Structures are given as C-alpha cells and as structure tokens.
Amino acid sequence: MFVSHLECPKCSTSYASEEVQHLCTCGSPLLVKYDLDKVRENMTKEMVAGRAPDLWRYRELLPVVDEKNIVTMGEGMTPLLKLDRLGAEIGMTNLFLKDEGIIPSGTFKARGSAVGVSRAKELGVKTLAMPTNGNAGGAWALYCAKAGIECVVVMPKDAPSIPRSECAIGCATLYLVDGLISDAGKIVAQAVKENEWYDASTLKEPYRIEGKKTMGLELAEQFGWEMPDVILYPTGGGVGIIGIYKALNELKEIGWLEGDLPRLVAVQATGCAPIVRAWEAKAKESEFWDNAGTCAFGITVPKAIGDFLVLEAVYETNGCAIAITDEDTLAAENLLASVEGAFVCPEGAATLAATQKLFADGWIQSDERVVLLNTGCGIKYPETVQCDPPLLQPGETLPANG
Predict the structure, then answer these.
(1) Which terminus of the chain has a lower count of CB atoms within 10 Å, N or C?
(2) Are 329 and 269 in contact, with CB atoms under 8 Å apart?
(3) What is the pLDDT of residues 172-184, one digit of tens each?
(4) How many CA atoms lie within 13 A of 197 on its CB side?
(5) Helix pair 135-147, 109-122: axis angle to 10 deg
C-alpha cells in the first residue's frame, strides 16, 4: 500500500514496483521498500488490533495497492503456543511454538503464495511457473486457482505425495523431475524464458518474502510488541528467516519495537547444510551442497539464491546456524507430539532438536524466550511416523494398561 520502490540489496539499484520485475541485473533478488514515514502516519497498533485475524491486518506494510486484488483464504495469525510441559522436561521456562500447521494448505507457504499471487494478479500475470520441493507448489497452485492464474509446477519425483495432490486438485500443470529442486529450477528457468511466463521461483519475484515476513509481524504483536530472545527457523531457501528479519527491522524503523533483535538461528539438516558450512567459515555466501538429502524434504536446498541475505540476518542478530541429523529430527518430532500434542512437520521438529543442542551447549539460557517456528502440519509427512498397532479380533479384551 505504501511501496516506494524495489531495491537490490547488493548493488542498491532501484526498480519501479508497478512493473513486473524479477532479479536485479547483477543477479540478486530484489526487496520491497516502503515509505515508512507514511506507514507510521497511517497505521497504529490500535488499528491493527481491531482488524480481522489474518495477515492482511498489516496491509500498510504489504505490497498490494488495491484491496480488490487480494486473494485470501484466511491465512495468518497462527497460534503462539507456550510449551510448558516440554519446557519443564528439558529445563526451559519460556519455550514457545509458532505453529504454521493450521494455515490454509497446511504450511507457511500459504503466506508467500497469498501475497505473491495477489500481487501477480494486480500486475496482470496470466501464467506463472515455479520449482518446488512440494509444499510451495501445492500452496501456489491453490491460490492461483482462486485467482484465475495458470500455474506450472516442477518438483522432484521424491517430494512428498500430498503436495502433488494439491497441485492436481488446484488444476496446476505438474511435472516431476528425476533430481533435486536445483534441477527443477533449471527447467523452470528455461520454460520462463521460452514462454515469457512469470517466474515465481523462490526470491526471483519480490513478493513471496512479503507474505513470509508476516510471521515476524505476528510474533511481535503476539509478544505485546516486544521481542523474544531467540527464533529458530528451518532453513532451505531461507525466505522465512529473511522475511522475519525484514519485518522486525521495519517495525523498529516505525518505532513499534525497541532494543536488540532476536538472535536468529538457521536450522538445517546434516544431509544438506550449505548455510551452516558458510556460517562456520564466516563466509558471505554458501557453496553448492553435493548429494543433498534429508527426511526434512522442505529444507533440501543445495544452494539458495538468497543465501547472502540469510547469512546477513544471522550475523547481524548475533545468531547462528546449526545442522541436525535426521535421527534427532525424528526423535524431536515424536517428543513434541507425545508431550505437547503438537504433530509438526520434520522441518519444524528440527528446530526443537537444534534448541536442545544449543541449550546443552549454553548458547541458549534456561529463562530466555525461545520461539520454535513450525512451518507445516505433520500429517503432510505420514512417512516420518511408524505405526504398527496390534490387530484385535471381534470380542477380544483390551489389556489393563490400554
């Protein structure tokens, strides 16, 4: 609503926001910039509190100009749950879970697709294409269906099956590739060039990040316009952690937040940890991770186009990057469900495993306010849960212990 321009974070080149834009000429993603003085003059905390409980309550800090172009299914304002039982078990008094599993399409990808598709509609886009590890493709397919935009999706053949169904029911044109998301990305890039489609690949359009940043806006509001101490985020393409960092900085600039930003933690898998390796080397960018693989399929991104922005967010908040084994991820998934009744996706579970390690190492203190970001519903990953209950015959008696 108060967008001033698009800007390259590498070379500072400005671009007009009312034209279709993708990457900067230098190859960097573009970021949406706002006239924050006008935002400050036209938005108050009281106004926000009186609005519908969805992400569009922050519309002055979102890029859609005309509200008639908003494509929504009620996404946003997901619960912030205090994990008292789990916290007591592991020795932490202020452990929280931001649960994106109840959002439309069952993952946080609904945020990026809601804002990205709304802005694409406003810019007159007729067909868009994207590579995906699964959930983003499913979400964008459904929002495109609602917007009347054609959607072409390419995902690895080993991606979870449920997002395939979402693409099919959303009438997207779906292709599978015998490879990783990086291979899917190359196919999409060629198709975009040949057909002049809108490229909705991660960070190749500027608006997905604006939807993802609303997680940061919500967290600030849910904590009473204060900031937690630590936020752990499962990191593949990294749009979420970039967006949260952007959101909190914007809130600071308009005077709604004070003090240091939360320490941001990029959580990856040991089978695909390019950000972790770069952070350990104090590098500004990552290197391609060969032979990537993990049960947390959504973070299987060998090389993120926005890696330098992820690393900036980690460095500037005195955060860190940590890699988690699949064994620890699945153990954390079981622990969250058995103690708190939260059936989270493996990517979200990895943040608990990371918290346990960082707490054991003394990097996280027992009384700090720590937020685990669960990015999706565990039921979308049935293959991560082993279930082989005993078979009863009619008339059999249950054992005394149930």
Answers:
(1) C
(2) yes
(3) 999 999 999 999 9
(4) 20
(5) 40
| 267 belongs to a structural domain | yes
The residues near 80 (Cβ < 8 Å, ≥ 6 apart) are 96, 97, 98, 99, 218, 219, 222, 223, 371
DSSP helix/strand/coil, 151: strand
pLDDT of residue 387: 85
How big is the CA angle at 27 (ends 25 and 30), to the nearest 5 degrees? 85
Nearest CA to 76 among 250, 253, 203, 243? Answer: 243
Domain count, the chain: 1
Widest CA span in the chain:
75
Nearest one of 133, 28, 119, 128 to 72, comparing CA atoms? 119
Per residue in 295-327, pLDDT (tens digit) is 998 899 999 999 999 999 999 999 999 999 999
Q: pLDDT at residue 401 above 90?
A: no
**Contact status, residue 289 vs residue 232, Cβ threshold 8 Å:** no
Residue 35 lies in a domain: no
Return the ∠ at Cα 356 (arms to 350 and 360), rounded to 5°. 145
Nearest of 383, 166, 202, 165 to residue 295 by alpha carbon: 383
Residue 244 tokens, joined: 């949260």
Other CB atoms within 10 A of residue 67 CB: 10
Order of strands, sheet of 150-156, starting from the edge strand that comes earlier in the sequence: 173-177, 150-156, 127-131, 198-199
Q: Which of 291, 313, 299 is nearest to 231 (CA)?
A: 313
CATH number at residue 235: 3.40.50.1100
* Domain membership of residue 235 as a residue range: 80-106+208-381
CA 215 to CA 78: how far, in whole Å? 9
Residue 77 tokens, joined: 């304002």
Candidates 268, 310, 311; CA nearest to 292 is: 268
Q: Please indicate, yes or no, if residue 375 is contained in any of the structural domains.
A: yes
Nearest C-alpha neighbor of 264 from the set 192, 342, 316, 319: 319
AA letter at 104: P
The rounded distance, in Å, linking the Cα atoms of 52 and 72 is 12
Compute the chain's Rg from CA coordinates.
21
C-alpha triplet 221, 245, 230: angle, nearest 5°: 70
